[in-house]
Amino acid sequence: MSNESESTKTMTTGQLLTSYGEAIKAGLDNGYQYVKAFDQLNDTTDQAELLAAAVQLTNYQLNADFVVFPHQFSDEDVQLIFLERILQLANVGNSLQISNPDHVQKLLCKFAALGDQTFTFTKSTKNTTGFFFGPTDYNRPLFYLNLATKELLFHGASLIDYFVVDLQGTDVADLKATLQVLLKVAEILKEHFGFKIDFNVLDGINNEFYKFAAGDVSESIMDELFVKSADNQFILMADQNGGASLNLDHDIQLKVYNMGSADRPQWGASIHDPDQKESFVYLLLDYPFIQEWYLDNKKQLGILSNQLIFG
After folding, report:
1. Which of 2, 92, 119, 259 is most deeply packed, by most CB within 10 A?
2. Predicted confidence (pLDDT) per residue in 19-32, tens digit
3. CATH architecture designation of domain 210-305
């Protein structure tokens, strides 16, 4: 018999039914593995198992040719459930809660300190395992999360735009309480899961250098800070290289200076705080005159984030 005849041989009824049955079984088994991973995501108290379940469920191909499941959680939902679970295991689960658990698709969450403001994840268009977390009412990617590569990167511009500008008028204590939850998430992922974290404007480590987007800062912008500082009973001291330092409350000091050279300037700011709690975004919330100076000159003073991820 020729190869052509073999390839066009008609399948018998028995063979068809056997093939069909095997496809159904494979599809159902795939569904069982999906549910098993979700049970692990929902129930385990082991951190390694929790991360493994979330990674397994991200981009999971649940449907098969002969078995289609009409109600499925999205990849974005998986990230949000993981986020809620790690906070629960750290005994701070009441600070962030999924707000619509009765819905199967597109879960949202709320922070206890921000009332009805809702947040969710959105999948990156550049990386299928990367997701952006932000408020549903604004296009603000507050941070980027990739469970597969163990990365969490904060986006300075969006954090400032949202917490300083969009939520202007909200009690600063509530804003800080929410930012503390985000910091707690990063701390858990770093210490317990070995994630790489870029804290950006949330970094409170002394003398962390916050790079300004423009590279250079004009003399007029520095003069503006001198005037605003004086108007608020603070003295901005100039240094010999054109930079300046500003002594604030509780022995906190802000420095604005050039980390580059005259030919290749790279201006930015650093903060020294004895308690190492005052990050750049906290500084803007605590001192309205610095906030005004920053926002008036945001094009030049914007804090750089990872351009590959957020650019």
Report:
1. 119
2. 888 889 988 998 99
3. 2-Layer Sandwich (3.30)
- For residue 245, give the H/E element and its range: strand 244-247
Alpha-carbon separation of residue 290 from 256, 275, 296 (angstroms): 12, 20, 10
- The number of beta carbons lying within 10 Å of the beta carbon of residue 311 is 8
Q: How many CB atoms lie within 10 A of CB 84?
A: 17
Cα(245)–Cα(26) distance, integer angstroms: 67
- Tell me the residue length of the chain: 311
Q: What is the pLDDT of residues 51-99, one digit of tens each?
A: 999 999 999 999 988 888 888 899 999 999 999 999 999 998 789 999 8
pTM (predicted TM-score): 0.91
C-alpha–C-alpha distance, residues 7 and 3, integer Å: 6
Residue with tokens 């689960």: 93
Domain boundaries, the chain: 2-72, 77-202, 210-305
